[in-house]
Amino acid sequence: MGNLFHFSSRADLDGAKNLESFISRCRNDLTVFRADLDFDSWLWPKAANFTKLGSGSRSTTVEDRMGAPFINFAKAYFRYQQGHNPTGTRNETKALKILERVLSETHGVPDILNLDVNALDQAAVLAQEYFQPGAAYQCGRELERLAHFVSESKFISNNCWTWRHPVPRPEGADRTGRKAREARDQSFLHQMQC
What radius of gyration do the chain's Cα atoms show? Predict the structure, then answer.
């Protein structure tokens, strides 16, 4: 998997300095996605492209690149989370794209240091408008995890630790097995006939 570390903020540093330390450690100490990964690139082959919401996830157009300074946090957070809890779906990217848009619109510049409960609420609403219900729910879960991480790491002065995403779980998403599959198939057939 590569070199991993557990990030701990320092009480003697402010949020910006703790964030700077986190990004630096993710750039220099982690080997998730290869030790020779060009961290400064916004295109990480076979991992992720750090693009804005609405652009294709495989876009290589410079205008589609996430804005600074958010992009450095996004890359560090993505690498860190994939190292500690690797997932094939990489839902972190959905949450990061949504947050980058909200922070850009509310503050003019996307900066994770400006994250607060209002931005998280707006992000949850945007996720429901932009994604299908299942993807919106997953995005909401990732927004909540991110809010906990930046609060615990003391990157932000606004404590978002208690924020809970309001995105409802799609009906039937928690059911598994033969009966649940048959119910989903039946629902799909009914939708096709309408």
Answer: 18
Pull the structure tokens for residue 8.
Answer: 């701990």
- What is the distance between the alpha carbons of residues 139 and 41, in angstroms, rounded to a whole number? 24
Residue 1 half-sphere exposure toward CB, CA atoms < 13 A: 12
Residues 6+ apart with CB under 8 A from 100: 52, 53, 66, 67, 70, 71, 74, 110
d(CA 103, CA 75): 16
How far apart are alpha carbons 14 and 35 in whole angstroms? 29
DSSP 28: H
Instruction: Output the CA–CA distances (angstroms, integers) from residue 184 to 52, 177, 193, in the order listed.
Output: 33, 11, 14
Q: Give the model confidence (pLDDT) of 18-61 as tens digits.
A: 999 999 999 999 999 999 999 999 999 989 999 999 998 789 99
Query: Residues 89, 133: contact at Cβ < 8 Å?
Result: no
Nearest to 123 by CA among 167, 74, 57, 66: 167
